[in-house]
Amino acid sequence: MLATEKMRRMADLIAIAEARRRVLEAVRTLPAEQLGLMQALGRVLTENVESPIDVPPFDSSAMDGYAVIGGPAAELEVVAEARAGHPAGVPVRPGTAIEISTGAAVPEGATAVVPVEDTEPGAAPDTVRVPATVGGTNIRRAGEDVRAGEAVLPSGTPLGPAELGVAASVGRGSLACAGRPRVALLVTGDELTEPGEPLEPGRIYSSNGYALMGQAVRAGAELIGRERVPDTAEATRAALGRALDVANVVVVSGGVSVGPHDHVKAALAALGAEQRFWGVSLRPGKPVWFGTRGETLAFGLPGNPVSAMVTFQLFVRPALAALQGADPSATRTTAVLEQPIARNPRREQAVRVRLRAADGGWVASPTSGAQGSHVLTSMLGADALALIGPGDGEAPAGERVEMELL
Fold first, then answer.
1. Quick one: CA dihedral 285, 235, 265, 30, positive or negative?
2. Which of 244, 254, 385, 391 is most buried by its number of CB atoms within 10 A?
3. Burial status of residue 234 (CB atoms within 10 A of its CB: 0-12, 13-18, 19 or more)
4. In this structure, are residues 390 and 346 in contact, taking their beta carbons and an 8 Å threshold?
């Protein structure tokens, strides 16, 4: 019976691209919320931000020195001082100069700023000798960075330090951001033991919960629960029911294959989840399940640790990005293989690789050691997953292939 089911599943496997399409087709962007800049780091913008002002809003000095009227060398009377936030209040006239600090407003009448190191004290008190100066020197013009009315941040922008700085520079104290996806994470298996506890015979430490937790949080999600679930139909159904009631995204690792102790698919069906696909032509990660209940997304990932991380990256991460209004394909690029990689005759492969920069772009080489689905250390140092198409022979060194950045 299991062999027949396995053969049927092999015929029903879909490509990675088709699986991603079905996932993204089911996503609805979460409602926006207004957040202060201190809370917006790492969130995704859901509005177009335009500047109501010029940045800088006035002509300002690029140097500590003296604001002057450009012309030949001269000895000038220093009549005032302009500091940042404290304009001089008097204009520069022929024969005069105003001492000025970096960032201070250039006084009326001034056409240049002479750096203090290029000047000398004059012969008379309160005078300064300046060299010949060209008009426009060392002045930052109003609007040189941003013009009033200019769009500075488009909707869908992930908000990092630079983006928050730009928003602040145009006077925005808050921004409309997509809600954070609420993720419930379930890990199935009677053999699992929490790290830090004694390890009994036949048991292993639970690593998937922590690896997947890290991936979810890095993708901008709010982890609302992490639960280890025994391999019984009742416990699986109860845990999934709790998760589906409170989460935007439910991720369960293990229990999605066809063995007698794999209860996830049946539990999801009983709880009203609609299957969108089960099985992807992928190595590692073939027995991945995806479905929906209303607008809640549910992912059944394999129990092997590398398979779980790979399928999260390829299918769950794009969903989390799209829920936040971000570009789900932003982690895609290409690289040239530094060495040949054997193809799988029937399935696409996600090979863990390191990337190095070269003149023609990225160059990829597999991480050291075995690449089995159970070899979690193959993820160490990996910068990307190289997506190698199925076929005979090898993907040769020098071939450019698609990469999923980790």
1. negative
2. 254
3. exposed
4. yes
Q: Model confidence over 74-120: pLDDT tens digits?
A: 999 999 999 999 999 999 999 999 999 999 999 999 999 999 999 99
* Cis-peptide, bond into residue 72, ω within 30° of zero: no
The region, left, alpha or beta by phi > 0 then psi within -120 to 50, assigned to residue 344 is: beta
Distance, CA of 98 to CA of 375 (rounded, Å): 70
Answer left, alpha or beta for residue 136, where phi above 0 means left and psi between -120 and 50 means alpha: left
What CA–CA distances, in Å, run from 178 to 129, 151, 214? 58, 19, 20
Per the CB < 8 A criterion, the answer to whether 112 and 66 are in contact is no
Q: How far apart are CA 166 and CA 162, in angstroms?
A: 6
Cα torsion angle, 251, 254, 256, 261, sign = negative
Listing DSSP states for 308-358 in one string gives HHHHIIIIIHHHHHHHTT--TTTTEEEEEESS-EEPPSSSEEEEEEEEEEE
Tens digit of pLDDT for each residue in 259-301?
A: 666 789 999 999 999 999 999 999 998 999 999 999 999 999 9
